[in-house]
Amino acid sequence: MKKLVFLGAMVLIVGGVALASSITVPFFNDMGATSFPPPTSGDAASFIAIKNNTNQPIVCWVEYSNDSGVDMTPTNNTFLLPAMSGLGFRPAAVNDVQEGAGAAVPDMDLTKGGGAKWGGAVISWEGTDPTAVQGRLMQVRSNATDSAMYTLPAGR
Q1: C-alpha 69, offset from chain centre
Q2: How far apart are CA 96 and CA 102, in angstroms?
C-alpha cells in the first residue's frame, strides 16, 4: 500500500512539472562594433543563430552570465521562435540592421556584472525534444584576421 501511495504522489508531482530542453553557448565575445561595415578595431562580434525544426511556434527564454558566472539575464528574457524558421542575434550588442528579426531576442543586461559583453548563454524551450531547436555561434573579428563558427551543444 505504501508503494501505491508513493507512486501516486510521484505521478502528481512529475505531472505538474513542465520539462524543458536547451542549447548552450559556452562562451562568446560580443565587443565588436555595431556599425556596418564595422571599423577595423579588431574586436569580435558574436552572432548566435537558432532554428525551429518543428511546425509549431516555440516560446523560448534565454539566460546569460558573464565569464565569472554573474547572472546577466534581463528581466524580460522570453521570445517567440516561429515555426520552421530561424533567426540570428547578437547577445550583447544592439543592431537592428545586422540582427533583423533576431533583434526581438533579449540581450544581456549590461547593467549587471560590470557591463561585460562576453560570457555564456543558455537558450531553453518547453518540451523534451532536444532536436526541436538547433543553433550555432559565429564570431568574426572586424579586421577580418579570423573568424570561427561552432555548432551549439545540447544544454541542461
Answers
A1: 16
A2: 8
Q: Which three cell numbers stand for residue 111?
A: 547593467
Which position has the grid cell 558566472?
A: 69
* Residue 37, preceding peptide bond in cis (omega within 30° of 0): yes
In tens digits, the chain (156 residues) has pLDDT values of 555 444 444 443 444 456 899 999 999 999 887 766 555 566 888 999 999 999 999 999 999 999 999 999 999 999 999 999 999 999 998 877 778 888 899 999 999 988 889 999 999 999 888 899 999 999 887 666 678 888 998 765
Instruction: Let me know: does 34 contact 44? Beta carbons within 8 Å.
Output: no
Nearest to 88 by CA among 32, 136, 38: 136
